[in-house]
Amino acid sequence: MKSSQVLSGQALIGEELELRPVDIVIEEGRITAIEERLQSPPLWICPAFFNAHTHLGDTIAMDCGADGDLESLVTPPDGLKHRLLAAVAREDLVAGMRASISGMIRSGTCGCADFREGGREGVLVLREAAAGLSFQPVIFGRDGGDAIADGLGISSTRDIHGVESQVRAARNAGKKIAFHAGEQDSGDVDAALAYEPDLLIHMTHATRKQLKTCAERGIPVAVCPRSNWVLGVTTSARRPPLQTMLDLGCTIMLGTDNVMFVPPDMFSEMAFVSAVYHLDSKIILRSAMEGSHFTGSPFFIRKGARAALFTVDPTQSGLVFSHDPVTSLVKRAQSGMRGNNVFNLKTQ
Ligand SMILES: [Zn+2]
């Protein structure tokens, strides 16, 4: 029997996230029709989020009392997280990642771009953790893991040797390339740009010229503002330079970075960006799902797309008083989340 479902409400349609009263027909996990409705029930329908930068593996190091700097915490090979990852039992690693993924799903997220440590085994462990869940991790492996992953994820060009040969091998294998860049200063950005990456992470201290290059070449930037603040690489709304990125036409994607010190929750990230950076709500919301392009089948709601969306019933909370669902989704939806996830993803 064909599975079919109709969702009626105020939906955020297309990449423009245009709020419209509609019926959305979902058959076999795909949106087969979007029909205008004069009167819709008070239900908000939003595309699922895609977290554009995570390190799910370090769930096992959650709040481990670390208060060091960037280098002592997360820089390979001897940063605290790498020592903890090296010592953890495989089953605990899987359980940690699965717990994080399950939490992400409950808060409207059905995919992420993960930098996965631990070579091939590291990639397999993440696949196992996500197995059977309506969640699509786009995995950037390293140390050989890239060969069986979606891409190669390079910790800053200054941390590792042999970047060139790694990038060449990954390119030849048709893999995507991503770098951490500009997290502490702008010194490693030009080297990353020289490899024509598919994604740059952070760019907290990127120069205007470097950002212009990103815009011109269509290289998206995954920004992780809460992580930057927690790690002390910014103390000002000027960094990461979100407004400059937008002014120059960069594509911004929101990520939450290391689970060890930032929960992988997009509602919290959006609310933080709204409070600190004062960007337009719709731009913030779009950046929370923009990374879904990496799945090859973006989550934006349109006819023919797969159904990767969630609903919020505002009548179940104070959200019923909202004059602006987009702004309320960005600034306060989590506390009022009563709805359903409709993630009919075919996981890899
Ligand atoms: Zn990172």
Word description of this protein:
The chain has helices at residues 70-74, 80-87, 90-106, 119-130, 163-172, 189-193, 208-217, 225-230, 242-248, 266-277, 281-287, 325-332, and strands at residues 4-13, 18-27, 30-36, 44-47, 49-55, 109-115, 136-141, 151-154, 176-181, 199-202, 221-223, 252-254, 257-258, 308-312, 341-343. The strands form two sheets. A nine-stranded parallel β-sheet has the order 12-11-10-9-8-7-6-5-13. Strands 3-2-1-4-14-15 form a six-stranded mixed β-sheet, with no helix packed on it. The two termini are 24 Å apart. It has 348 residues and is α/β, with parallel strands linked by helices. Helix 6 (189-193) links the parallel strand 9 (176-181) and strand 10 (199-202). It folds into two domains: 4-48 and 299-343, Urease, subunit C, domain 1; 49-295, TIM Barrel (Alpha-Beta Barrel), CATH 3.20.20. The chain has twelve helices and 15 strands. It is globular, with a radius of gyration of 20 Å. Helix 3 (90-106) packs across helix 4 (119-130), helix 10 packs across helix 12 and helix 11 (281-287) packs across helix 12. The relative contact order is 0.17. Bound molecules: zinc ion (ZN). The site of zinc ion has 6 residues, from strand 5.
